[in-house]
Write a structure and sequence with these properties.
9 helices, single chain, mainly alpha
């Protein structure tokens, strides 16, 4: 799979530190815990420290997603704020939903939405930084040529993402970078599944138009549906 299939630029991984009184860094097997997120949230109503389990399970994922959208420097604050907001709102959590991951991605996506101009500037900067062409006829080793090609692909993808409406970019990146399915993305954004499908269809159509028919954000073969719900 090409390097650009998952990201424009993979930020340097930073250790995710604990939030005071909320949690610690996730460890191996955290996602295999049989206790549901909903039961953790419910128990945290009377035992607030239990909410640390959700931090342990999802902090790295939320940090990675925030870093891909706004850069590593902003990701620390966005990740921390996501869990602070989630903790404050935990009594309003829908306990019929066993998995809290879409809820957390919805919170961090809303926080990203408060930095739309910063995200657009970052994407445009990535496009400019990686967009310079090597001098024509310049001899390059194969591995250097491959790297240049990858950088050009990232540049074109960054520029294409910057040109998407924010609501379309949110859906596309929740699915491509957050690994949410349609139903989870709908839950995260508070919209019908049909709206997610429609926005995703339009976003990918615009990407293909901008990128000469390719869609490097597609992680697997999907049936193109035109549900405009």
């Amino acid at each position: 799979m090409p390097a650009t299939s998952r990201y424009v630029h993979e930020p340097e991984r930073r250790p995710v530190t604990a939030l005071p009184s909320i949690g610690a860094r996730s460890g191996p097997g955290a996602h295999d815990d049989p206790v549901t997120d909903a039961s953790v949230v419910e128990r945290s109503w009377s035992e607030p420290d239990v909410f640390a389990v959700l931090f342990s399970r999802y902090a790295d994922d939320i940090h990675r997603y925030a870093a891909r959208r706004l850069g590593a420097e902003a990701a620390d604050d966005l990740m921390a704020e996501t869990f602070v907001i989630a903790f404050q709102r935990r009594r309003g959590y829908d306990l019929s939903r066993p998995h809290a991951r879409p809820w957390l991605y919805g919170i961090v996506t809303n926080l990203v939405g408060q930095h739309r101009r910063a995200e657009a500037r970052r994407l445009k900067a990535l496009a400019r930084a990686a967009g310079a062409s090597p001098a024509e006829g310049e001899p390059l080793e194969d591995r250097v040529a491959a790297r240049v090609s990858a950088e050009h692909s990232r540049a074109r993808l960054a520029a294409a993402l910057a040109g998407l409406p924010a609501r379309h970019r949110d859906v596309l990146l929740l699915i491509a970078w957050g690994d949410l399915d349609y139903a989870e993305a709908a839950q995260a954004l508070g919209v019908p599944v049909g709206t997610v499908r429609s926005r995703l269809h339009r976003a990918r159509a615009k990407l293909r138009q901008a990128l000469g028919g390719s869609d490097p954000t597609a992680l697997h073969e999907e049936t193109e549906e035109t549900d405009r719900g």
